[in-house]
Amino acid sequence: MIPLYPIFFTAFCIIAIILVYLRFRDNKMSLMSFLLWAFLLLIILLFALDPSLSNILADIFGITRGLDFIIIISILGLLYLSIKLFFRMENLQQDINKLVRELAIRNEIDLDKDDNKKD
Hints:
This protein is mainly α.
């Protein structure tokens, strides 16, 4: 019987690459992001089509099994994305704080002008 995971991962990767390309084509994604996602999806596709590649890479890094290698790399990737999102969120929070301060100051100035007109 043919295992289903190569078929599933192949279909997933092809659909994901198409979606990533469409986002890039619509200028919703930078070239660097497009290349990164395409590279990652191609790596997943390679591991799905030839699982022995993960064993080879695991041996190079001194890890006993290929699946352990994939899990470790996945955890490191998720940790990197979490840190990157945290920093982006912090920057957005700072930007929002600046905008709120500027709007509050402008609104206060406008209120002072309105009060002077009523007098």
